[in-house]
Amino acid sequence: MNGSTWLAVVPPLLTIAVVIWSKKILPSLLLGLVVGSYLLNPSIVGGIQTAIENIIKTLSDKDNLQVLLFLYLFSGFIALVRKSGGIKAFSDWLSGYIHSERGVFYTMWALIPVTFLDCDFRIYGTGSIVRSLGEKNNVSRERLAFMINNTASPIVELIPVATTFVGFNIANIEQALKVAGVAEKNSAYGTLLHAIPFEFFSMVVLAVTFLSIYFQWKKPATGTMEHREHVEHSGMMSMNMDDAKPQIQPRIWNLIIPMLTVVFLSFFFYAYFGRAGWDGTIASIIAATDPNMAMLVALCISIFISGLLFFFQKYPLDTMTNDVIAGGNDLIRLLAILVVAWALGDVSQELGLPAFIQHQLGNSLPVWSIPVSLFLVASAVTYFIGEGW
Question: CA–CA separation, 380 vs 374, rounded Å?
Answer without folding.
Answer: 10
